[in-house]
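Predict the holo structure. Ligand: calcium ion.
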Amino acid sequence: MFQENNPALTSWLDVPENNDFPIQNLPFGIAKYEKGPLLSKRPGYQAVSIIGDNVIGLAVLHELDYFRDIQLPEGIFEKEYLNEFIDLGQPVWRAVRKRLSELLRKDNHELCNNKEALKRCLYNVHDVVLTLPVKIGDYTDFYSSREHATNVGSMFRDPKNALMPNWLHLPVAYHGRASSIFVSGANFHRPKGQMLLPGTTDKPVFGETKALDFELEMAFVIGKSTKPGESVSTHDARKHIFGFTLFNDWSARDIQRWEYVPLGPFLGKNFASTMSPWIVTLDALEPFITTAPKQEPDVLPYLRRPDSNGAFDINLEVWLQTTGKEETKICMSNFKYMYWTIDQQLSHHTINGCNINIGDLMASGTISGPTPDSYGSMLELTWNGSKPLILPGGLQRKFLEDGDKVIIRGYSQKDGLRIGFGEAKAIVLPAV
Ligand code: CA
């Protein structure tokens, strides 16, 4: 176990109960600032971490020489994205998280007693603008929940043959669009496109989607690149992963249904995706590694898991807030349900020699569980609109309407330790 993950550690900074960001988490993000007392001296960007409701400016700590024992280039924490920091390698990210943990511990007074430093490096999370933490070169979306693939296959094709013949043999995925991945809080407009009217099979119409949906997902950020021709084994996969975020792969089901054969999703997906601003490191999630679902039939040798512990126990929730109303929890799932593990996903992605780069994003696919309240999309929760969700006050939803806000939350919890992810949220704006 990493010393930083010890549940007994506490900080001199206050962390409210059930907060996502105790001293054992210390995720990485990027804050943008224009002027005023925030952050370091010049306007721009700063790499940050968070404990409780306190955002910590890493550029200021670096400038004040608190990272003196770590080899860090000047200005490394004043970039628009974390990519160059991630490129320094796993030993460096680990050293920075370890040092932060030391500085924040209850019995450490180096930073706690330096009032001038605190004034410059600590900010309330509500005063900080968090931006997209990584420059995403490429984005791949897997389709790795057996329950989700079975549900969608049943609705879109045939309940008796819901899974395609390849599904149990390889982690199916499509290459998505990186340009439209937005940070939490960035709202987007309802997309338009081609779709079939109900009851027709070959005469499409053009218009606003009438079946806008969310997809409850997680995504991992690549932390170590490969060269063309190289492959990553399931055994080495985690050495290439920096950390995890929450992810929403917004989907227009009517557009998707008409366009997806034979090459897969296109305009039904690429108008917007939302990710949470904090990247929780794989190290912080180590206590929550758990047994992955058994695979039957056996997979090909290159996809064999290094051991049975390939899943992560991360509770996931989707909340829906309609205009002027309270948030309502509409789904509870868990990342551990995924049939294909992240090790298998990355190994499959690179087995043909496809090179990966730092900052690439690999999303899990919709994470549905075995019970109807654990389905990770409106498509499944309402069974393609046939069983509308009944919200408090009697409001009904088959799919999302303009003004609806969807919030994804996630956290791991065990032995008094809670490691959370914050939120990935956005509001559906009317079509333009
Ligand atoms: Ca998806």
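The chain has two domains: 3-131, 139-429. The longest strand covers residues 417-429.
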